[in-house]
């Protein structure tokens, strides 16, 4: 497993954008990682151009990575700093996101290995803490983050619409403390 997992930077090609678009439009998972402010907003289907524009880094400290398993693109993850929606606005607090878009990649520990890699990369980029947001109904992601040492710090209410009502976001924080990266 570990040997067959690799990471690369997301390119600005339409080929990468098409894969991300497939995941953003996949009804099995889209409600788990995209914010839908209203019931009606669920009807929106993304185009690769929209996704490409969204993924363009807003500054040089943002990084987007592709997760590859056996050479196939199975997920994406990113970190950024001082993003407007973050509760902790400080230059050493990173924001994380992760999506395993291909169903066969989920539930095998790839998410954990990918998060550990992202933590390492973010620390190299200057992160001392990480803030992450997870919808309250996303039990698998909550379980993963808890087991990696993330602790709940806030619950912004009525954050996203799913399954007939609005749900809170759970904000979690991990403090790396004094970590030696040598
Ligand atoms: C969330 C996601 C990144 C998790 O990665 P994964 O590789 O599928 O994670 P795993 O199934 O191996 O589970 C990791 C941990 O989560 C926990 N977990 C898994 N399923 C769970 C569930 N249904 N309830 C509670 N905890 C659960 C366990 O603690 C598990 O650790 P373990 O290895 O000790 O059992 C991935 O499933 C994914 O991308 N899902 C779709 C999009 C998404 O939800 N992204 C996150 C948005 S915040």
Textual characterization of the structure:
This protein is about 25% helix and about 30% strand. It is α+β, with helices and mostly antiparallel strands and about 180 residues long. It has a single domain (about 1-175), classed as 3-Layer(aba) Sandwich (Aminopeptidase). The strands form 2 sheets. It has a 7-stranded mixed sheet with strand order 1-2-3-4-5-9-6, covered by helices on one side. The two termini are about 25 Å apart. The model has no long low-confidence stretch (mean pLDDT about 95). Bound molecules: coenzyme A (COA). Coenzyme A binds near residues 106 and 111. Coenzyme A binds near residues 138 and 147.
Please name the defining characteristics of this protein.
182 residues; alpha+beta; Aminopeptidase; 7-stranded mixed beta sheet; two-stranded antiparallel ribbon; 9 strands; 30% strand; globular; binds coenzyme A
